[in-house]
Amino acid sequence: MSPAVRERAALERLTIDTIRFLAVDAVEQAKSGHPGMPMGMADAAFVLWTRFLRYQPNDPLWPDRDRFVLSAGHGSMLLYAILHLAGYDLPLEELRRFRRLGSRTPGHPERGLTPGVETTTGPLGQGFGNGVGMAVAARMLAARVNTEDFSPVTHRVFGIVSDGDLMEGVASEAASLAGHWGLGNLVYLYDDNHITIEGDTALAFSENVGRRFEAYGWHVQHADPYDHDALTTALERAVAESTRPSLVITRSHIALGAPHKQDTREAHGEPLGAEEAAAAKRASGWPESPPFLVPDEARVVFAQRAAALAPEHDAWVRGLEQWKSRHPRRAEQWQALVEKRVPEDVIEQLIHSAPTGAAATRAHGQAVLQKAASLVPSLVGGSADLEPSTRTRIQDATSIQRAAFEGRNFHFGVREHGMASILNGIAAHGGFIPYGSSFLVFTDYARPSIRLSALMGLQVIWVFTHDSVLLGEDGPTHQPIEHLTALRAIPNLLVVRPADGPETAAAWGLALERRDGPTLLVLTRQNLPAIRRPRPLVADDMRRGGSVVREARGGDPLTVIATGSEVWVAVAAAELLEERGIGARVVSMPAPQLFLRQDARQIEEWLGPRERRVTLEAGATDYWRRLVDPRGLAIGIDRFGESAPYKELLEHFGFTPEKVAARVLEWLRRSS
């Protein structure tokens, strides 16, 4: 070995040890965290970041950067240490504040908080699915804009996944789709350390992961993560593989170098302890103090990598501007996509073209989607094998398939969980506003990803139909009861349940207008009458969360608040009540979360006294208690459903105008 090679190897070892012991020190200081994975995978991450990943710390949102996903988010200090050394805006002081309130180094990586973090990972398997979404989004964007003389989109998605990731079902669903689509721009390193919190993975995990992924259609290799040349060769082959996603299985050692905790469960999720940390440092020839030591030389390799990549970044920036001048129409398409451009008056335009007749809101949604797709080129999506029921196909567009990424329609198969994590990845990548659909009851499968889209503030549109017991014969297994209440409880998730064509149009417009979080549209299977309003619906009605659809006639009126398929019932019941001399105002409230943002005085002006309010929704009543006095009336369903035609269920559960009016009369009698 020549002196230059020895010197380079020593420099690399110094840098890798810096990464390992920054992680150890941060976890020790926080008295919380996961030191084992960063210690075991520092070599592999170093090779990936210094020999393959394309990035620019001074331009962390460079559109053609490679994406790195640490799906094993419990090893967050691995990523934070690398970002610090690579020159991102993450000072050493932030590493010292690991897991502290207000720091940019939380326990698991969070998108939007730390530069260089592409997605929020922590719930295992989610990052895996997000990376698949990023890879398919890159392929779709490339298919739309790349030309022979310049390609704005050439990047790849790299990631590190763990045993836990590959045990979770969401990763299996996403992996199957990645293989089906042939995502050759996706490369994952598998941290195969054989340890989970309970102990050796052999307790519950004895499958042949490599063969499983080969069956999915992946390119699978094995490489020693501590042999840099062997790992480099494996990654070169993975990058050269253009028609299959790649999994490089690395047999690693959790807490590598810790004399008593290497390859033990104790290194998963708790500090090494002062004595073990000191012993690990001694074993590696690392100074025991001071903590958070970063030798100047440790920054050299990353600085050299950033310097080597800078001309490529600068050439891309220049090339893009020249390309725009040569291809003005394609340049306009590029801008519309990367900006996720939406007309400022999108709600007004959609309301203006909204269907107005009697129909299921899923049918109204189908019509509105076509108009929305014509206005917003970034809009893409699909369903979990339920499009004939959810009606969410863009009719003049083709489907996404292997080597055919120009389309706008996805077929996710029967995979709600995988679909949802992939949609989050598409939204996080940029270029597209994705939507996904299924039946409302199956939000139980998609909920972890829905929650993460809300946590990350991603513009994902969730479209769920078959929204209550009134879907009919499929029975209790398919009839959602508690789901609206549960979904409205997720912070930053806007749930909208429209009553007719105009409200469905406004709901889609609101979802497209809303940039800082996901919107969930809740639509019916059964037909609904058109709602006669005292005035046409306007955009501000939806932005406010509700509108008056019937004014009261008579003194001391009560207010009936309803959503979705119960609005027409409320209007008809109000007519019956007025025949009995009881004035009833009806408010359609498709988005109660928005309505409740108003101050108490405005709410009282709209709804009247709390003791004169009635709510009506074919689901759990818990949510509505906040709008009615304990003396008020919340009409709903707080039990599981029944299998029967929906008109029989209307009668059985008391959701006919006559039965609602009778409930109100009985309530008034008892409360007088």
Automatic annotation (TrEMBL):
Keyword vocabulary terms for this entry: Calcium, Magnesium, Metal-binding, Thiamine pyrophosphate, Transferase
Enzyme class (EC, first level): transferase
Coiled-coil zones: none
Cofactor binding comment, as recorded: Binds 1 Mg(2+) ion per subunit. Can also utilize other divalent metal cations, such as Ca(2+), Mn(2+) and Co(2+). Binds 1 thiamine pyrophosphate per subunit. During the reaction, the substrate forms a covalent intermediate with the cofactor.
SUPFAM superfamilies the UniProt entry points to: Thiamin diphosphate-binding fold (THDP-binding), TK C-terminal domain-like
Binding sites annotated in the UniProt record for thiamine diphosphate: H74, G122, P123, L124, G164, N193, H268, F442
Cellular component aspect of the GO annotation: cytosol
Any one Pfam family match given in the protein's UniProt record, by short name: Transketolase_N
Sites annotated Important for catalytic activity: H34, H268
Binding-site list for substrate: H34, H268, R362, S389, H466, D474, H478, R525
Compositionally biased tracts (Low complexity): 270-285
Needed co-factor(s): Mg(2+); Ca(2+); Mn(2+); Co(2+)
Transferase in keyword set: yes
GO terms assigned for molecular function: metal ion binding; transketolase activity
Domain of life: Bacteria
Catalytic activity: D-sedoheptulose 7-phosphate + D-glyceraldehyde 3-phosphate = aldehydo-D-ribose 5-phosphate + D-xylulose 5-phosphate
Quaternary structure and partners: Homodimer.
Record function comment: Catalyzes the transfer of a two-carbon ketol group from a ketose donor to an aldose acceptor, via a covalent intermediate with the cofactor thiamine pyrophosphate.
PANTHER family: TRANSKETOLASE, TRANSKETOLASE 1-RELATED
Name by which UniProt lists this protein: Transketolase
